[in-house]
Each structure stands twice: as structure tokens, then as C-alpha cells.
């Protein structure tokens, strides 16, 4: 599978900064030949309460469109082999699809951003999450978090029962 977002210093490329750091720590190779600098004690990122991982989200499943397991995000306590059958899309929007999903055993709505969009469109997609994270009002959909560790990017929000989301 081709990854649009790659991180590298010298040598191989990695899907995440964490993978890059882990590689240099485990192999004890310098981050660059010129510097000969080694990673000994990486500093953990200060995590915002809205930062989530794709593995935290379980897309609802039922018979339907079959897609490879590595394109679907599942909870870490669920063991799946081969393919998973997913509901498909609940709605379509300007940036991608909206799925009904499960987070911490609660139903949620997950907006996805297509991996093929440009950086400006990705920023516009994420701006919704950054705006919502500042609000806590009963008449505004609550932001649960964002998962940006790989594509597709997710915005996870509370699921409003009985309503399908409107197109962006």
C-alpha cells in the first residue's frame, strides 16, 4: 500500500514520526551521517485530550462492501484476520465520507478526509475540529477527537441520533 505521508531523515521512510524514532532507537543508528547524533531518550509529545489513534475507533461492521483490513481501523482488543465487512458510508461530504462507528463502546460519527486531497484542503477539514474543540454547548455537536496518525484522517464527533449529517 502506498502511503502519502512519509517521514524520513536519511535512509528509509516511515509512516509516522514515532516509527522513525523507534527505528533509530532500536537500531542505534545516527539520525544523520553528518551529525552522528543518536536518539537515546526521546521526549513524548504532550497529548491533547482530543488526540486519538486510528486503533481507538471501531467502524461499525455488517455485510457490505469488502475492503482490506489494513484500510480499516479497529480497536486494539479486537482480533481480525483477512478482511472486514463494513457498513460503507453513512453520508458523503466535501472532504470524504461519514461513518457511524464505535469509540469506547459508544456510537460516534467519524468524518474522514480523503488521502488524495491537498494540504490546504486537509487544513480546512481539520479546522472544523479545532473550532469545535473550543465549544461545550448542548446545541453544538461535541468533538470527541481527531486521529491524524495515518490516512484517512478522522474527526470523531458525538452521534446525533435520528439525524443524518448534512453535506459540507
From TrEMBL:
One Pfam family it belongs to: PK_Tyr_Ser-Thr
Alphabetized Gene3D superfamilies for the sequence: Phosphorylase Kinase, domain 1 (3.30.200.20), SH2 domain (3.30.505.10)
GO molecular function annotations of the record: ATP binding; protein kinase activity
Domain Protein kinase residue range list: 84-168
SUPFAM superfamilies (UniProt xref): Protein kinase-like (PK-like), SH2 domain
Keywords: ATP-binding, Kinase, Nucleotide-binding, Transferase
Name of the protein: Putative tyrosine-protein kinase
Organism placement in taxonomy: Eukaryota, Metazoa, Echinodermata, Eleutherozoa, Echinozoa
Amino acid at each position: 500500500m502506498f502511503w502519502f505521508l512519509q517521514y524520513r531523515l536519511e535512509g528509509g521512510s516511515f509512516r509516522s514520526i514515532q516509527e522513525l524514532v523507534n527505528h533509530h532507537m532500536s537500531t542505534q543508528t545516527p539520525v544523520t551521517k553528518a551529525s552522528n547524533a543518536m536518539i537515546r531518550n526521546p521526549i513524548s509529545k504532550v497529548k491533547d485530550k482530543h488526540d486519538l489513534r486510528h486503533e481507538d475507533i471501531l467502524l461499525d461492521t455488517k455485510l457490505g462492501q469488502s475492503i482490506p483490513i489494513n484500510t480499516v481501523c479497529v480497536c486494539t482488543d479486537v482480533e481480525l484476520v483477512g478482511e472486514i465487512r463494513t457498513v460503507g458510508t453513512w453520508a458523503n461530504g466535501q472532504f470524504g465520507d461519514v461513518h457511524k462507528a464505535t469509540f469506547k463502546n459508544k456510537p460516534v460519527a467519524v468524518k474522514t478526509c480523503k488521502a488524495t486531497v491537498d494540504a490546504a484542503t486537509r487544513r480546512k477539514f481539520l479546522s472544523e475540529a479545532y473550532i469545535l474543540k473550543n465549544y461545550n454547548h448542548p446545541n453544538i455537536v461535541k468533538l470527541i477527537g481527531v486521529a491524524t496518525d495515518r490516512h484517512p484522517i478522522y474527526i470523531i464527533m458525538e452521534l446525533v441520533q435520528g439525524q443524518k449529517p448534512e453535506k459540507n
